[in-house]
Design a protein that fits this description.
It is built from 8 helices and 32 strands. It has 593 residues and is α+β, with helices and mostly antiparallel strands. It folds into 3 domains: 168 residues, Galactose-binding domain-like (Jelly Rolls); 93 residues, Immunoglobulins (Immunoglobulin-like); 166 residues, Glycosidases (TIM Barrel). It has an 8-stranded parallel β-barrel, surrounded by 4 helices. The two termini are 44 Å apart. The structure holds (2S,3S,4S,5R)-3,4,5-trihydroxy-6-oxo-oxane-2-carboxylic acid (GCB). (2S,3S,4S,5R)-3,4,5-trihydroxy-6-oxo-oxane-2-carboxylic acid (GCB) binds next to loops.
């Protein structure tokens, strides 16, 4: 699936703005065919945004079930004879969509795009009604998982990930038009041969059997550097300008379907020429050892929740630059594609993660404590879950495969990984990822409950990604004991001979809380002491090639006695003010200061 774009032959129209919106508490909308007419008792809702925080009402914030969205749109008169497509960049966690009275698409998974060819159901120059029922419930068969429990006070949605279950239409909805003959996908794989860049491309198209496929590669100044015909081929760029960390140089590949002199379809794909390889304990980008400095993050903003906002995107990347970070992980789900596009342009390196978070009944919301379920069993996470998970991996890779910024796939965060059931569940999922993308390393993020010697899944990964909280969840306030225990465990992992990225280490810190005495958790000083201790350990172990602090900014979670207005492990507050630790990290990460 290609991301909708305006090109010389394609036209897109955003459906963002105010939609009609109704919560379907009684679950009456599907059988009552709400898509046939204006939604009953509707209010207005902003798209894109999470609906949860908009109403200032706990019943709305905590609602789970069917959520109805409706809008109407004019099909441009000029689109007569064109193929017309309705595209959702995401709907969390699943949706079914109707155009007028006709169901056109259903999609499972809250963070990847889906679309429907609606040509047959619309008429150029006329208005159509678009209705989407989004559903945000989590079950053992969804990614991420959850369960609905009956309690004396009614049904409650339970889940095991430590961020609020924001839902709705978080990203842009597009209507776009192409020629009936159109390109459906392109895969670009790059390589380096000395100073020559190598760009392998494969194009898929529909209705194009009698057409010629033409590609043209241009540099950042718009100068043509190579051209070719055919649906698959290799282009060479002498004296290539590589894409590298901190230097997001992009070429543009124009793809065309041509009949005689007429270009029927044209699409542009940006291309960063770089290589990624794991070699022993080294993580190589363009053959050079790369060391990850940065954060685990969240899509989490005041009012709009997981809704995308360009201004925050720019500001967050400014803060990454200010602090000297070169990378981050899209914890714990695929991010808005605008984020990936911008990372490509900025030369920011990404670890790209699926939404498989919370597959661990030994943990709850990042807090230790059993959940009363078995993680993997026929009644809980089972074969169906595994298939849904496999699809989530495929959809992530299909969407993000052409982003040079993405250098590593993370197929899950902190799942149970110490049991034979976990091993059986994950083994085939690594194959799924490698089949979908043979060019990038694959890993998963290991949790403290499955330390070295116990984890049965790490052996499948190309790199080791570890989340550890020595000095926070264990050895709280005792950094001396934490340092010894952490170094001992990390030294054992280093014996595996793989690169190690510390994908999480962090301490909750209440901004403004200070302490002159060391070892005082929640204070700004303790966050600095905690990070310093971790860095001493990392610097003594050669296999550690990355440090991603948890978290870039404070974020919203469910309520609980371990969370004070959300998770406070941010180095920045939720409104992006630096805590003392931000300055300390800046001194460590910026080598130009
Ligand atoms: C973790 C999780 C992350 C939590 C974090 C915490 O290990 O991966 O989602 O937010 O711990 O702060 O407890």
């Amino acid at each position: 699936m290609l991301r909708p774009k305006d090109t010389s032959t394609r036209e897109r129209k955003s459906l963002n703005g105010m939609w009609q919106f109704a919560l379907d508490q009684a679950g009456a909308g599907r059988s009552g065919q709400w898509f046939m007419r204006p939604l009953p008792d509707a209010r207005e809702m902003a798209v894109p945004a999470s609906f949860n925080d908009i109403a200032a009402d706990a019943a709305v914030r905590d609602y789970f079930g069917d959520i109805w969205y409706q809008t109407s749109v004019w099909i441009p008169r000029g689109w007569q004879g064109r193929r017309i497509v309705l595209h959702f960049e995401s709907a969390t966690h699943r949706a079914t969509v109707w155009v007028n009275d006709v169901e056109v698409v259903s999609h499972e998974g809250g963070y990847t795009p889906f679309e429907a060819d609606i040509t047959e159901h619309v008429t150029a120059g006329e208005q159509v009604r678009i209705t989407a029922v989004v559903n945000n419930t989590l079950s053992f068969q969804s990614i991420p998982p959850g369960v609905i429990e009956d309690t004396p006070a009614g049904k409650r949605q339970i889940y095991w990930h430590d961020f609020f279950n924001y839902a709705g239409i978080h990203r842009t909805v597009w209507l776009y038009a192409t020629d009936p003959a159109h390109i459906t996908d392109v895969t670009v794989v790059t390589d380096l041969d000395g100073a020559t860049g190598v760009v392998n491309y494969t194009i898929e198209a529909e209705g194009a059997d009698d057409l010629q496929t033409r590609v043209t590669l241009r540099d950042a100044d718009g100068q043509e550097v190579a051209t070719k015909t055919g649906t698959t081929g290799t282009l060479h760029i002498p004296n290539v300008n590589k894409w590298a960390p901190g230097d997001g140089y992009l070429y543009e590949l124009e793809l065309q379907l041509v009949q005689g002199d007429t270009v029927l379809d044209s699409y542009t794909q940006s291309v960063g020429v770089r290589t990624v390889k794991v070699d022993g304990i080294k993580f190589l980008i363009n053959g050079e050892p790369f060391s990850f400095k940065g954060f685990g993050r969240h899509e989490d903003l005041p009012v709009i929740g997981k809704g995308h906002n360009d201004a925050y995107l720019l500001h967050d990347f400014e803060l990454l630059r200010w602090i000297g970070a070169n990378s981050f992980r899209t914890s714990h789900y695929p991010y808005c594609e605008d984020v990936l596009d911008y990372a490509d342009r900025q030369g920011v390196v990404l670890i790209d993660e699926t939404a498989a978070v919370g597959l661990n009944m030994g943990l709850g919301g990042g807090i230790f404590g059993g959940q009363g379920y078995k993680t993997f069993s026929p009644e809980t996470a089972n074969d169906v879950t595994q298939q849904v998970h496999a699809k989530a991996i495929r959809e992530l890779i299909t969407r993000d495969k052409n982003h040079p910024s993405v250098v590593l796939w993370s197929i899950a965060n902190e799942p149970e990984s110490e049991t034979p059931e976990a091993e059986d569940y994950f083994r085939p999922l690594f194959d799924v990822a490698r089949e979908a993308d043979p060019t990038r390393p694959v890993g998963f993020v290991n949790v403290m409950l499955a330390p070295h010697g116990k984890c049965r899944v790490s052996k499948f990964g190309d790199v080791l990604m570890l989340n550890r909280y020595y000095g926070w969840y264990v050895n709280t306030g005792d950094l001396e004991a934490a340092e010894l225990a952490w170094e001992e465990e990390l030294t054992a992992w280093a014996g595996e001979g793989k690169p190690i990225i510390i994908t999480e280490y962090g301490a909750d810190t209440y901004p403004g809380l200070h302490s002159v005495v060391a070892g005082n958790p929640w204070s700004e000083e303790y966050q600095v002491e905690y990070l310093d201790m971790n860095h001493r350990v990392f610097d003594r172990i050669e296999a550690v090639v990355g440090e991603h602090v948890w978290n870039f900014a404070d974020f919203t979670t469910t309520s609980g006695i371990m969370r004070v207005g959300g998770n406070k492990k941010g180095v920045f507050t939720r409104d992006r003010q630096p805590k003392t630790a931000a300055h300390a990290l800046r001194r460590r990460w910026r080598d130009d200061l």
